[in-house]
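Repro case for the chain-ordering regression, as requested:
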Amino acid sequence: MELRDIVEAGCHRDWETTTAASSESVRFAVIGLGWFTKRRALPALAASDRCDPTVLVSSSTEKAERLGAEFDAVEHGITYDAFHDGEAADAYDAVYVVTPNALHLEYVETAAQYGKHVLCEKPMERDSERAARLRDVAADGDIQLMIAYRMHTEPAVRRARELIASGVVGEPMSVRGTMSQRLLDRVNPDPDQWRLDEALAGGGALFDIGIYPLNTARFLLDADPVAVTGRTTSSHDAFDEVDETVSFTVAFDDDVTAHCFASHNARQSSEITVTGTAGEVSVRPAFFQDQTRQLHVSRGDGRATVALDRVDQMREEFDYFADRLRGEGAVVPDGDHGLVDMHAMEAVYEAAETDQWVTVEYE
Amino acid sequence: MELRDIVEAGCHRDWETTTAASSESVRFAVIGLGWFTKRRALPALAASDRCDPTVLVSSSTEKAERLGAEFDAVEHGITYDAFHDGEAADAYDAVYVVTPNALHLEYVETAAQYGKHVLCEKPMERDSERAARLRDVAADGDIQLMIAYRMHTEPAVRRARELIASGVVGEPMSVRGTMSQRLLDRVNPDPDQWRLDEALAGGGALFDIGIYPLNTARFLLDADPVAVTGRTTSSHDAFDEVDETVSFTVAFDDDVTAHCFASHNARQSSEITVTGTAGEVSVRPAFFQDQTRQLHVSRGDGRATVALDRVDQMREEFDYFADRLRGEGAVVPDGDHGLVDMHAMEAVYEAAETDQWVTVEYE
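-- result from build under test --
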């Protein structure tokens, strides 16, 4: 594919294998009704013509029904226990798991039991052992499992990946990715939020946002980590259990390295750049949802910047998942893909503790 | 100082302590007449109203005189041996050493012997032991020694440093710096150039261009490296003695890290970014001379990009050095400063060999 064709594709959904009109809508049970669900996921599901949020699952029927009243498609508001008991199972085809990380497994177990496909938020679980069980549960239950890496359906990232695959940068050599925000000041001031609770989250800035540059580097390079090193730090009391800031390096095959930075205590930053022997591709900004993305391409003496229309990243992701369920395409990123990040992130923590490079071991 | 004042300063020479009109011109002997001298240094010295290139020193009188004929100020073209013998010593006040790295020491020894001040190209020498001797020779000879880090007088970098010192980014947390070029294709095709000869250069991409993000990170943070890790690689036969590509991380105090990438085999990249708790400052592009620099500042929800007039970085550097010699200001970056980079870069090589983090030891 030529550079011009790729750039001109813009926000084209190159992944579509079905049309919304010819496909039965995928009905979702949404598990976990935090701010991300309310502000991001439900509006996207409601706007989609491929998906419907028919069941909301929360700690109380009342909470689920109150939120459900805001969306026409919602038919049931039920409790977590009721979900496990199979209540309203006829009303949904798939489950979107957006609970604290350490609870993902149990909802996927129930989904598998009832034969419901799963879109599971990243990171997969609180540790790699549970993530592996989650993957196995889905396989044993013969359900489709996708890990919710929304960068895989972000148009600017997809175009960047196509440019790299087409040889625009030559041989990739270096990736730099950064994602940071002021979590407590700007996103969620609650010092008791589950993201700060090691037992529920499994990790801090690395698990929550460092996973973006890590996974997007993998996606852009189409490669998996070989070894990592890194450092973590925390300055606020709220981060006494998990890392507030992480700075890490991922070594891939062929001497390619990715330098990544993520922090819950830094000014918002959000970009990823791949430099190769012949060119450079950068998505800047890249990761946050309320940003108009620019794709920067340099090759030889030339350079171009392309502004892409802003899309609803969650809707792109939901629609992609629905297309995959209704069509013939493989559901990726799958559990094996997500598990690689779990192993890589655990290796970063080990590296930070030991001041070493740590080889990423896959089971 | 306020953000607006800093930005409005643009290319103002905030470092000036004397005026050109009131200062006697500094007469330079220029040692080493490679392409950098011809294309960058001599034109800058010739254009300066504070400096004059009066003596050119090369392998043959003929070569020195032939080049000297192109510049009105040049009075003598002499050999290296003649320089060591003190020929034309009355015709220069200072020496600009731009030979292969491993020869710096001997010319500084001679300069000290004749009481001539020295502007010495970076890296200081081929290893830290010789760099320390170079520093000591200058001190013992009571001459001024400046290491030629032109980023210290690059206006965009100086403004970035002032912004950081004024608190615009809050507490600095992460630095990302990258400098790459296609050396053999685009800069100098000679596979026998001294930069590729370990005995003459001491190191490869790290010593030649990795030193830019390394030293500029130090300059912007006003801090010195504590520990480093990194990886080096080479793909071309021409780089069988020295690293073609280096990817390294520098840990500073207060949990600040700098991720750096440099390559002689990658598309040109050139930028440095500091992300802090409250803001971000980026110079993009930063390091190459034929670039119009932009200073990018983000703080809170605001962001601004300032384009600076293009300056001749070499002239800024020469004029600064001349100002320091004629005025009262201390000559920095000095030998101690340059030696820190030597130790840090040797630690990067040790880290690359051992796959470890290496503490940077200073004598």
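Ordering looks correct now. Residues 229 and 355 of chain A are 7 Å apart (CA to CA).
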